[in-house]
Every structure is written in structure tokens, then in C-alpha cells.
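fwd from M.: "can u put these together and see what the complex looks like"

so here's what she sent:
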Amino acid sequence: MDSVGNLTQRLRKAERRGHLRAYALIAPLFIFVLLSFLLPLGDVLVNSFYDPVVPKGLPRTVQALAEWNGPRDQIPPEPVFAALAQDMKEAVQSQSQGAIANRLNVEESGLRTIFMRAARRVSTQEEGPWAPFFEAADPGWAQSGIWGTIRNLESPMHTLFYLSALDAKRNQDGSVGPQPEDQRIHITIYLRTLGVAFTVTLMCIVLGFPLAYLLAHLRDKTANLLLILVLLPFWTSLLVRTTAWMVVLQKEGVLNSFLQFLHVISEPLPLVHNRFGVVVAMTHILLPFMVLPMYSVMRQIPVAYVRAARSLGAGPFTAFIRVYLPQCIPGLGAGALLVFILALGYYITPALLGGSTDQMISHFVADNILHLLNWGLGSALAAILLAAVLLLYAVYDRLVGANNLKLG
Amino acid sequence: MSASNLPLYTTPLQRAGHWVLLIFCTLVLVFLIAPVLVVVPLAFNNEPYFHFPVQEYSLRWFRDLFTNEVWLHAIFNSVLTATLATLLATTLGTLAAVGLNHHNLPGKRLLMAVLVSPMIVPVVVLAVGSYLFFSKLGIANNLLGIVLVHAVLGMPFVVITVTATLGGFDMNLMRAARGLGASQWEAFRRIMLPLVWPGVLSGALFAFATSFDEVVVVLFLGGPEQTTLPRQMWTGLREQLSPTILSAAFMLILFAIAMLLTLEMLRRRSVALRGVTE
């Protein structure tokens, strides 16, 4: 009895040692992934709600405003102005006044001027009273608006970027309302992104299903040969394929000049820098992701089932719909989900083949980070895109298993 | 499945459907391959036009590609980045795949899901994240940052192909080696690695191609010095489609063909080594 217990214990110990060894082998990669993948993604999340510019740049003002805590439609009293003067002097000394002014301006355009006018003069005056000084610098200081904005930004963590990403804003009186009409662009962009991804997925199913079916029912040798035609574009650089579509579709391009040569059209068709070009090129690029998983599932469906259905009296159509199709669903689902997930994040192809109204969410992420320098909003948009993709990925993992993600 | 050997019980309607299927699939295959092939003759066009017929063939755009400082610098950077990223991804990825192959390892599914996720996370999001994160560490705007992120993007391919190859590997061989006195490392190096190297190599090839083709991360993390081949193409395409870009595209198509052939060779080699069919 004792020796059996001993043996069980030793076996368990050995197994634990084996597990530890396995983890030790995985550890280097995991640490690497943590440093170059998980932490950067975490930084996106942090940047989407952490925004210390105002509380760090105007600490005394924020505190004085909190102590006063008056109604939003009133101008704060003299101590708040004095605190602001002190903060502003320090900001000018450390040359951070521009960053603060820009941050305010992101929330409400026009505030940059009001802030900078005061900042330019603040060093010339030693003593108060400060309220008249600020009012003389810019009458904006004698209105409640700018104070409301500063109070909205008083905490280093807030949801303003997400509000902005959802086309809403916190008004200067503290209420939440919609953005002005000309700035309500993001909902349109999400819908557009979903629309393009959905159209591309649908096109991939329509084109990919028959092709996978044919390939699965050909002799192995022929199928392998034809698979090369699927795999070669698949392994060709994405930029090359986008270039190729530009060459084919542009005004003086291959397709237009061919159609004109045949006298089908007299004027070149607008095929590029619009939605058509984006959808065609994205379908081309993503089609292999649809065909390959469907092909591998269809190849394993025994022919006998359909034959049995036929011999039991089902017509060819019924046999296909009720016997063959249900067995394709795993491959179809895997392919469609993968194409949809990948399409959501597309950037290069719409940027080169689309017009200004065909850009997807990735474009606006990049634009906010690189050009508009609104890192918070860019990060919030990126976080929303990431959340959508991870949600679908979790579904994919549940249905197919992440380790079955074979791309070739 | 040509029309002649359709089963006898097929109805005329089914025969018609069969032909429709054949024609439709031919069109889909043309759709897939034609844009890639169209680039080829146009890259040799003497005139900077992008339509047929090509009047006169010449190598003038290739001469431009291989003598222009900017393009040469970009090609050099691409090869360097992809090589370093591949080495990193392949080494770490292979080790991890061996660990993941351990039978009933707790948390394996979650680990796998995390390690594969760089494949599906939108590359813009990762580019933004690494831009923000690496700026703090001071490795934005240089090659190191790009190499690290490219290695992350290539790593899932290595993990997946090596795990798949190990799935067909007989672990008894390792036990036999250990029983005969080999150390863990020796058994890995002399028994396992020689049998799974085709998988490792195809993973490495995938990783290389991923880095070689990547542009978004380079746009965010690359300083003015770090132009790579795709970035140079991207810049060119944004301004104006030039024939030199087509000659670069042609070279990349050759690269894809070489890669396809190598992968097929590796697959056969792997099957032969393990003596199993897939």
C-alpha cells in the first residue's frame, strides 16, 4: 500500500517536472511576446483613457477649482485665477504651455488662442489681482466655457476619448451630448468598415465556395496543380497585389484600355479610388483564406453520403442542401470568420485603391496618431478595433481552435 | 471530374450545372492569377505606360532598380530586417513549440491562443502600440524596434508549422535516445531536430516573407533612414505609379515563386522523413 502511494507520488512529481521543463522552453518566447506585443497593446489601452496633460500642467488650478466647486455657469473667484497665474508661469518656464493649449483646443477649438494670449503676458505681471489681468488678456477668461473644459480634464483618467470615438462629447457645462454635426464621423466609419468587411466576406464565399468544391472533387494531381494558382497570389507580397490592381484598374490601365479597344466603352470607367476598387482588391487578397480551409474540410467529406442520399430518393438539390452543405459548415465558418477578422483591420489596400470616402477605421487610427497628433483619440479608436477583433477571435478559437489557423 | 466520367444517373440539368461550375471556377482562377501575371510583361515595357500591347521590351526599369541608391538601400534594409526577425522568431518559436508539444500541458490552449494572436491583431493597432511603447524605451526610429515587431508577426507561423510537424513525431524516439544515454539537449539536436527541420524551415520561410512584405509597422517605427523595399514601394505608389515599382514587384513575384517551390519541396521532404502521409 505504502509503495503504491510512493509510486503515485513519484509519478506525479515527474510529471510536474516535465511540465516545468515545457514551461521553461516556452518562457523565452512568452517574455519576448510580452515585451514586444502584449505591453505595446497595453500601452494603446492606457493611452486611450490616461491623459495627464492638464492635471500635471495646471495642478494648482485644478485643485483650486475643486476647492471652489461652484456651479458650471459661473466664473471662478480670484484664488482660482491666482493659481492659474502661478501654473502658467511655471508652464512658460518649462515651455509646456503649448502642449496644454493644444490639449484644451482638442476638446473645444478656439481655446488655444485664449490660453496662449494669457500665457504670453503672464510673466510681465508680478502681483494680482489676476481676474482682471486674464480678462484683459482675452475676454474668453471671463466666460464660463474654458473653465468648464479645464474641469472636464481635471482627472488624469477619463473617458473623453471614448466619448469622442463614439461621436459624443462632454460639454462645457458638464453634460454629455453629441458632437457638432461636422465632427460626427466615427459612427459612419465603423459602419463603413463593417460594410466593406461584410461585402468582401460575402464575395469570398460566393467565389470561394464553388472553387473549393471543384478542387475537392478533382483528382489529387490536378487539384494540386490548380492549388498553385491559389497559393501563388497568396504568397505574393500584398503591396505587389495592390500595385497590380492599380495597374489593372486605373484610368489608363489594362482593363480600361482593353475595354476601349473592344469598343465596349468609349470613356474610361472609374474603377479605382472608389469602393469598387477596394472591394475587388481586398476580395482578391483574402480569397485564399477562404478557399484553403474550405478545401481541406470538403476533401474529407466522404462521397458516400451524397450517393446514399441520392439512392434513398433525394434529388441532387436536396442531397446537396441537406447532406453535403451541413458538412461544409466548419470550413465555411472558419474561412468566413477569418476573412472578416482580417478585413476589419485593412489599411494599405483602401489607402492606395480607395478614395477619401472609402477609408476604414485603421486609416483614422493612423491619421490621429501620425498627423493630427491626437494620440488619445487614435488609441481609443485602436482599442475599439482591437476589442472587436479579439471578440471575433475568441469565437474563432472556440469554434475552430487557434492552432488550426493555417495560412497555407 | 471531367464531364465524361460523371455518374450515369446525372440528369441533363446536372450536366449543365457541372459545366457552369467549371466555367465559373475558371473565371475565379483567372481573377486570382491574372493581376499577378499582368505585372510581368509591363515591368519589361520600355515605355512608362501600363497597358497592352507592349511595343518594345527592355530592362531599363530593372537597371533603374538596381542602380538607384534609394532602392538599393531599401532592399538592403529589407533583407537585413527580415533576416534578423526570422532568426529571432525561429529560435524562440521552435523552442516554444517543443514545449507546447508536451502532452496535456495545463494552459496550453490559452498559451497557443496568445501566441497565435499576432496573426489576427490588426497591424495598425500593433504599430501604434509599439510606437507609443518603444518611444518610451528609446528604440523607436531605429531598426531594432522594427526587427522586434516583425519577429512577433512572424513567430506564429513558426509555432504553428513546428507544432504541426511535431504532431507526427514519435516521442518514443526521444525516450529511446534518452534510454541509450543521450542528454536532453543531445536527443533534441540529434534525433528531434533532424526529423522536424522541414517544419522549422518552412516556419522560418513564412516568417521571412511576413517581414519582407510588412509596411505598416515600418511606417510608424522607421525613421527616415529605415526605408525598406515595401516602404519604398508604398511611397512611390502614393505619389505616382512608376515602372520601377513594377520591376520591384516582378522581383517579389519571383521571390514568391521560389518560396512556393521551396515550401512544396520541404513538405515532401517532411513526409519522406517521417514516413507518413498527411
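replying to her w this: DSSP finds 19 helices and two strands in chain A.
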